[in-house]
Design goal:
50 residues; alpha+beta; two-stranded antiparallel ribbon; 1 helix; 2 strands; 26% helix; 8% strand
Length: 50
């Protein structure tokens, strides 16, 4: 079975505490963006009012 790390319909994105380049939340944001590009964001909504 192939595992697609950007298919958020099957599993949750990375923890917001995972750091990339010393920045928190970046890994989770990238997971959500990549899943959105593939159309597999699932029930995750950004909910950002900016």
């Amino acid at each position: 079975m192939n595992y697609d790390p950007y298919d958020l319909t099957q599993h949750a994105p990375r923890s917001p505490r995972v750091r990339i380049g010393g920045m928190v939340i970046l890994a989770r944001m990238l997971d959500k963006c990549r899943a959105d590009l593939k159309g597999k964001v699932g029930d995750y909504e950004y909910g950002c009012s900016l």
